[in-house]
């Protein structure tokens, strides 16, 4: 059955509504000490702020081992009325505490498949209890302008898990780079259909030619992390999306917020948070592209990107 796998069960893609296609309710990285997203009440406040503006679904890309607080996700979804999709997968090695990656390196595909078909592991423990809900996507990562040995190893495991389950694969592109390298490995070498690959952070490297090359393969293009002044985000985003729509690729674009630190939350941290996607980005893009096209980015495209034929 074609469905989106959420923390409250499988759901038809058409039921997602307005979707934040890449964000984080909980996140802990060795590269961001002291900036953890680990407060359940703050996560609830952020979801309520998003819901108050018409937001209906948040896809959390936090993978295994980075403080997902998976046990809190179902109750947060029930309390706020916001659908939540959880991720399995593995990020760049630099994000992890020493030793954790080594514990799972040789069983990644089994770990991913287990979280997609049996249940997400509690406490980010590879030998921990299995929670009574399943992940809905595999989150992995490339490297800066290349694919290092860690990235290639994880890509192989993600492809194996995809072929076993049908799950979509979302990819953190480091500073938006190397999307074609990722596609070469996942699709050309490992046989993952481009329609099941979601490439994140393309806004951070606003190379219109590369965007067009990626789109021509049929992959999904995620533009996420708005309002980050140190990246080429808001001020270049309309140009990138106008070009993709003009080339006939408006049906492949996803939008997300990618909140990764407590300070970036709108509800409790003073940052743009999830609200920014609807309060600022949506009307801005609507001015340049029309409301129908922006609705396509926020509603129609996620309904197809995250709904798969589960095996």
What does this protein look like?
The protein has 311 residues and is α/β, with parallel strands linked by helices. The chain has one domain (2-309): TIM Barrel (Alpha-Beta Barrel), CATH 3.20.20.140. The chain is 36% helix and 15% strand. The chain has 10 helices and 12 strands. The protein has helices spanning 40-52, 73-80, 100-104, 108-117, 149-165, 179-189, 208-216, 237-246, 276-289, 291-305; strands spanning 2-6, 9-11, 19-23, 57-60, 83-85, 87-89, 137-141, 169-172, 197-200, 220-224, 253-256, 308-309. Strands 6-7-8-9-10-11 form a 6-stranded parallel beta sheet. It starts with a strand and ends with a strand. The model has no long low-confidence stretch (mean pLDDT 95).
Question: What labels would you give this structure?
Answer:
6-stranded parallel β-sheet, zinc ion binding, Phosphotriesterase, Metal_Hydrolase, hydrolase, 311 residues, 3-stranded antiparallel β-sheet, TIM Barrel, alpha/beta, globular
- Proportion in helices: 25-40%
Which term fits the overall shape?
globular
Percent strand equals 15-25%
Structural class: alpha/beta
- CATH-level-4 superfamily name: Metal-dependent hydrolases
- Biggest sheet statistics: 6 strands, parallel
Count of individual domains: 1
Order of helices and strands: EEEHEHEEHHEHEHEHEHEHHE
Number of strands: 12
Write down the CATH topology: TIM Barrel
CATH C-level label? Alpha Beta
Number of helices: 10
CATH architecture: Alpha-Beta Barrel
Low-confidence parts: none
Q: Would you tell me the overall average pLDDT?
A: 95
Using only C-alpha atoms, the radius of gyration works out to 17 Å
Distance between the termini: 9 Å
């Amino acid at each position: 059955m074609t469905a989106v796998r959420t923390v409250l069960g499988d759901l038809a893609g058409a039921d997602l509504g307005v979707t934040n296609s890449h964000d984080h309710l909980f996140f802990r990285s060795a590269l961001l000490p002291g900036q953890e997203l680990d407060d359940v009440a703050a996560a609830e406040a952020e979801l309520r702020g998003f819901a108050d503006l018409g937001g209906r679904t948040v896809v959390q890309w936090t993978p295994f081992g980075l403080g997902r607080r998976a046990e809190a996700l179902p109750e947060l979804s029930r309390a706020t009325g916001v659908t939540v999709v959880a991720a399995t997968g593995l990020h760049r090695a630099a994000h992890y505490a020493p030793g954790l990656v080594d514990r799972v390196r040789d069983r990644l595909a089994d770990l991913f498949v287990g979280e997609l078909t049996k249940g997400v592991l509690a406490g980010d423990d590879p030998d921990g209890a299995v929670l009574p809900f399943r992940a809905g996507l595999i989150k992995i990562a490339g490297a800066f302008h290349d694919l290092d040995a860690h990235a290639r190893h994880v890509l192989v495991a993600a492809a194996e898990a995809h072929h076993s389950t049908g799950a979509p694969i979302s990819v953190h592109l480091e500073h938006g780079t190397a999307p074609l390298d990722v596609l070469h490995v996942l699709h050309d070498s490992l046989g993952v259909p481009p329609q099941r690959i979601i490439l994140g952070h393309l806004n951070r490297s606003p190379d219109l030619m590369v965007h067009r090359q990626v789109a021509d393969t049929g992959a999904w293009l995620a533009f996420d992390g708005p309002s980050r002044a140190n990246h080429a985000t808001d001020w270049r985003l309309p140009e990138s999306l106008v070009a993709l729509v003009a080339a006939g690729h408006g049906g492949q674009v996803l939008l997300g917020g990618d909140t990764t630190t407590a300070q970036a939350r709108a509800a409790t941290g003073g940052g743009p948070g999830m609200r920014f996607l609807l309060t600022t980005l949506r009307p801005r893009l609507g001015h340049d592209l029309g409301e129908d096209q922006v609705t396509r980015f926020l509603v129609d495209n996620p309904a197809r990107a995250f709904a798969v034929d589960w095996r």
